[in-house]
Amino acid sequence: xxxxxQAAVPRRAPVPSAPDPGALPAGTxxxxxVLAVAMAAATLEMLRDVLRPxxxxxxxxxxxxxxxxxxxxxxxxxxxxxxxxxxxxxxCAKGAPVxxxxxxxAGSVVVLLAATAVYLLLPRWKRRRRGLVPLHGRxxxxxxxxxxxxxxxxxxxxxxxxxxxxLTALDAGAVVFGRAGRRTLxxxxxxxxxxxxxxxxxxxxxxxxxxHLRHRDVDIAYAVTALWRAxxxxxxxxxxxxxxxxxxxxxFGWFMGADAVFWPAARSYMVREIATAAFLFVLVVLARAxxxxxxxxxxxxxAVALGADPGVWRARAEAAVTQGRPAxxxxxxxxxxPSWEERCRVLGDPAGLFxxxxxxxxxxxxxxxxxxxxxxxxxxxxxxxxxxGGLAAALLTxxxxxxxxxxxxxxxxxxxxxxxxxxxGLGLVCGELLSGAGIGPGWWPAHLEPLLFPFxxxxxxxxxxxxxxxxxxxxxxxxLPALRGAVLVAAVSGCVVAAAGLGWWLGEGQxxxxxxxxxxGGLEQHIRRLFPGPWNQVEQYATVLPWISSALVSASVxxxxxxxxxxxxxxxxxPAALLLRRPRxxxxxxxxxxxxxxxxxxxxxxxxxxxxxxxxRPPLDERGVAFGVVYMWWRTVALWTGxxxxxxxxxxxxxxxxxxxxxxxAGIAQITALAGQFLLQSADGxxxxxxxxxxxxxxxxxxxxxxxxxxVQTAAPAMFGAALVTAPLARLPRTERPSAPAEAVRRSxxxxxxxxxxxxxxxxxxxxAVRSVTGDxxxxxxxxxxxxxxxxxxxxxxxxxxxxxxxxxxxxxxxxSRYTDLAKWLKESTDAETGAVDGTTLRPVCTGLTRDTAxxxxxxxxPDPKLGRAWSTLLAKSRDAARECTSVLDSQTDDVQRNTRxxxxxxxxxxxxxxxxxxxxxxxxxxxxxxxQWKGARNR
Length: 940
Known about the structure:
Layout: H1 27-51, H2 59-66, H3 75-84, H4 86-93, H5 103-130, E1 133-134, H6 143-155, E2 162-166, E3 174-177, E4 184-188, H7 189-193, H8 199-215, H9 218-251, H10 263-305, H11 311-323, H12 329-333, H13 340-348, H14 351-354, H15 358-378, H16 381-409, H17 418-435, H18 452-473, H19 480-507, H20 517-520, H21 523-530, H22 539-542, H23 545-559, H24 562-581, H25 588-614, H26 626-653, H27 658-682, H28 701-715, H29 718-729, H30 749-771, H31 793-828, H32 839-858, H33 865-891, H34 896-936
Parallel strand pairs: 2-4
Antiparallel strand pairs: 1-2, 3-4
Helix pairs in contact: 1-5, 1-9, 1-10, 1-15, 1-16, 2-4, 2-31, 5-9, 6-8, 8-10, 9-10, 10-15, 11-13, 15-16, 15-17, 16-18, 16-19, 17-18, 18-19, 18-24, 18-29, 19-24, 23-26, 23-28, 24-27, 24-29, 24-30, 25-26, 25-27, 26-27, 26-28, 26-29, 27-28, 27-29, 27-30, 28-30, 31-32, 31-34, 32-33, 33-34
C-alpha cells in the first residue's frame, strides 16, 4: 500500500531438521527380535508340556487336590480355596521333591545350541548339496569378478565375498549366504547369461545382494533359518508326537492318562494346549515370513540408492502380472519374499519400511502375553513383567520413533498410534485367550469385559508413545547423540509403564476374567468383621460396600505396588518434561493453568463429599471404623473424578499434542487435589457444614497425614484411568486457531519451576504410597477356609485320597489313638462319686490332644463338604477340650464343678470323634476300593 508502512510479519523460530530415520535400528532387526521372542515362547510352552511329569508323581499337584482343587470346576473357586489354604499347601509340599520347572527353559537352551550349530554348518551343507563351483571356472578372463568388485566398492563392501556359481539354477538371480567372516555370493547360471544382454538387470541383482551385506542382515537371515529348523526338529515335531499322539491315543483308550477320573477334565486342557501350540506355530511362521520379506524390501531400497535401475523392478512386476495374479491378502502373509508389485510400491514410496504395520504389532502383542504367562508360571510375576514388558516396550518405542522420524523427515504429521494400538491390543487379547490363567477349562472366560483393559490399554500406550515422540521431535536438534538420548529416555519411560501394566494384568487383572475374586473370597464379610458398623441397616453403608470390597481394594493394592506408583508418575511427568524442554515452553502455561484448575475442581469435589458425609455422620465414637472406610471411598471417588475430568477437558479443548498435555494437566491436578484435601482434613473440625471426623476446631496435620497416606494409594492408579478417558477424546476434530508468533510467547521460568516442584511432589507421593503399606498389602487370601464345592464323585474321591495320603491318615491315626487313651483314662482314672480326677495320668492325654489338634489344624482340611464340616467341628471341640483340660490341671485346685465341666467337654469331644472318624474312615475305605476300577475305566 502506498503511503503506509507494511507491518513486519512475525517469524517462527527455525525448526531444526529432523534426524535421518535410518539412524535407528532397521525394521528387519526389530522383526527378528520379535521372531526370536516368539520362538522362545513357543519352545518354552511346547517343551514344558512334553517334559511335564505325570500328575500323580507331582507332590504339589497332590497337595492342591487335597485342598479341594477341581480341574473341571470354576476357576475363581479353585483360586480362592488355594489362597485360603496357601500356608497349609506349602506345609503339605514341604520337604517333598520339587517338580522340576527347568525342563522348559533347559529345552529352550538346547534348541538355541542346536540352532547355533545349524547356523555354523548351514553354509557348508549348502555348498555341498547344490554342487556350487567357483566363479573363475565360468569367468576365465575375470570380467565378471571385476564388475562385481566395482559394484562392491560402490556399495561400500570392503571384503569381497567368495564368488561361486550354481549351474543348476537357470533363472537370473543370486543369493548371498555364509556366516560372519566367510560370506559367499552365489550367482545363478541364468544371471551369467543375461549379463551382456541385460546389464541393468545384472547390476540390479548384484547390488541387491551387496545391499544385504551392507545392511549386515545376512546373519539375520541365516539365524532365522537356523532357529526355524531347530524349532521344528526339537520343539514342534516332539510336541506333535507326544501331546497330539497322547490325545489321539486317549480317544481310543490306549493312553494311561485316559482314565475315568482325570480325563473328562484333562481333555479340554489338552485340546487347549494343542490349540495354543498351533497358534504359536502360526505366529512363528508369520514372524519368520515378515522378517524375511522386510529384509528383501530393505535390500531393494539399498540397491536403488546405490545406482540400480528401478525399471528392472517395474519390468519384473509387469511380467508377474502377465504370468498370473500375484499373492494378495492372507496368502501374502506366508511368503518369505514380497511380490514384485509390493517391491515396486515400496521403491516408489518407502513409507512402508518405516510405518507401524499391523502384522508385526499383532505378533508382538500375542507373543508378549503368551511369553509373560509362561514366565510368570516359572518365576514371580514382577521379573516376568520387567523382562517381557521391557523388551516389548523397547521394540515398540524404536518402531514408533522410526515412523515419527520418517514422517518428520518428509514434513508429515506422524503416526497417531491408534491403528497400531488396535493391532497390538488385538494380539494381546488373542494371546490371553489361548494362554491366560483366567480362562479356566473352557475356551472362553466367564467374563469377557476385563479383556478391554489390555485392548484399550494397548491403544492408549501406543498413542502416548507416538504423541510424545512427535512432541519431542518438534524442537529436537538433528544430531545423532541427541536422537539416541531422546529414544533412550522414551524407551526407559515406556518400559516402566509397560512393565507396570503387564505386571498388574499377570498378577491380578487376568483373574477378573473368572469373576470377582474379592467377593468370592468373602472380602465383604472380612470388612464387616474388621470394621464393625451398620453395614446392613444404613443405606449409605450398604450401597457402597460392594464397591469398597472390589474397586477400592483393587485400587489400593495397585497403588501400593512400587512399579505401578512409579508408572503413574511417569505417565504425566515424561510429557511434562517434554513440554519443559521446548525453547519457549509453548503450551506449558495453559497446561499448568488447566492442571491447577483441575486440582481446584478436585478439592471442590472433596469438599462436596465432606458436605454429603456430614449430613449423615454417626456419633463421634463410631467414626473410626466403618464410617471411616465409607468416607475413604467417597474421597477416592472425588479425586478420581477431578483427575479424569481435567484430562478429558484438556484433551477436548487443546489444539496440539492433546494426549501428552492432558496427562500432564491431570498429574498436576492430582497433586494439587491431594494437597488441598490434606489442608481440608487438617482443619476438619473448623469447617462448619464440612465437618466430618471432628466436632471441635483443631489443626491436626498428623492425623490428616495418616489418612492422606492411605488416600495416595487409592488415588495413584487414577492416572491410568485418565489415560483411558483421554485417548478417544484426543481424536476429536481440532478447532483451527492461528498460532502465536514466537515473539508473543514469553519465557515462562516461573511455570517451569512450578512444574518441576509438582513433579517432585508426585515422586514423593509415589514413595509415600509404597512406604505406607505394611506387609504385603491386601492379600487375596481370605481368613476363613471356603467350603469345597461339590465335585464329580470320582474327582471328589481322588481329592479325599490325596488328603488322606498327604496328611489325613497321620491326623486320623493320631486323633484316634489319643481318644483311645482318653477312653481308657475315663474308665480307669475317674471317681464318679467324688468327681476327683487323676491329673498325673490325664496330663499326657491332654498335652498330646493339644499337640495333635494343632498339627491337624495346620494341615489341609477334608476336601469333602459334609465330612469337612464334621472334621472342623471335631478339631474345634478337641482344641477347646484340651485347652480347658490343661488349664484345670495347671490351676492345681480341686474344683468339682470345673472338673465336671472339663470332663463333659472331653466326653463331648470323644463322642464327636466317634461320629466323625467312623464315616470318614468308611468313605476313605470306599474310595480306596473304587479307585483301581476307576483307573482302569476308559472314557472315549
